[in-house]
Design a protein that fits this description.
The chain has 252 residues and is mainly beta. The chain has helices spanning 64-70, 142-148, 152-156, 199-209; strands spanning 2-9, 12-19, 22-28, 34-39, 46-48, 56-60, 79-83, 88-89, 94-97, 104-106, 108-114, 130-137, 140-141, 161-169, 177-182, 185-191, 217-219, 227-229, 234-239, 243-251. It starts with a strand and ends with a strand. 45% of the residues are buried.
């Protein structure tokens, strides 16, 4: 399995590859043929969001335990909404709580990163169009979500889509532990076995609605245990095989 990072170096962004515990310059196209170049020092460069998606397609109520937590019936088909690319930040960047937003929640999620253009892809061929998996925090202004009914404003603020730290290529997403921590205290703990709609079905469903481009992300839903964040908090999404995505919370 490879871990693909996007790093800031000398004022520009480039990709790095972690393979067998060693970091290398990524040579080639991360969405095509690539290989390991010269070794680089881990931690020598700032890690950015691993991709720059044209869109994030998020799925609501896709964990059985979260549906129970919210007091809602299991959906008959995936419930989709969009988060804008302007919401994306990387590891260690600040989540900014906007003035007047009210309660702002964390939501730990597994993200599917698209590797090849996908349009009307059957579930059986979904893997051919997936680059890998990543961590995502679907930050949500909960009171605005309830007030607006639809989710665009509540989930679309700048900094409300932390992604990273890497894209795990070749990782099987069917039974991964998904956790979140706030100030070191575990708040969410579930497994992708709890997903109502599995990853291949989500690629099929979403690509039947809209064309997915390389770098686009499908956020697969959050498990139970969502809760509020306040300025000064430090929130971490941990998914086995991918790593930890940590962000500080600040006031806007």
């Amino acid at each position: 399995m490879d871990l693909l990072y996007r790093i800031a170096e000398a004022g520009s962004a480039r990709f790095a590859l972690e393979r067998a515990g060693e970091w290398h310059v990524l040579e080639g196209d991360p969405f095509g043929a690539y290989g390991a170049g010269p070794r680089i020092e881990r931690g020598a460069a700032r890690v950015l969001a691993p991709v720059q998606p044209s869109k994030i397609v998020a799925v609501g109520l896709n964990y059985r335990d979260h549906a129970r937590e919210m007091g809602k019936p299991l959906p008959a088909e995936p419930l989709l909404f969009l988060k804008p690319p302007s919401a994306v930040i990387g590891p260690d960047a600040a989540i900014v709580v906007p003035p007047g937003a009210g309660r702002v929640d964390y939501e730990a999620e597994l993200g599917i990163v698209i590797g090849r253009t996908a349009r009307r892809v059957p579930a059986a061929r979904a893997g051919e169009h997936v680059l890998g998996l990543t961590c995502l925090n679907d930050v949500t202004a909960r009171e605005l979500q309830a007030r607006d009914v639809q989710y665009t404003r509540a989930k679309g603020f700048d900094t409300f889509a932390p992604i990273g730290p890497a894209v795990a290529v070749g990782l099987d997403g069917r039974a991964l532990d998904v956790e979140s921590y706030v100030n070191g205290e575990r708040r969410q703990a579930s497994n992708t076995r709890e997903l109502i709609f599995p990853l291949d079905r989500l690629v099929e469903f979403v690509s039947a609605v809209m064309t997915l481009h390389p770098g686009d992300v499908i956020a697969t839903g959050t498990p139970s245990g969502v809760g509020p964040l306040v300025p000064g908090d430090r929130v971490t999404v941990h998914i086995e095989g991918i790593g930890e995505l940590t962000n500080q919370v600040v006031a806007g």
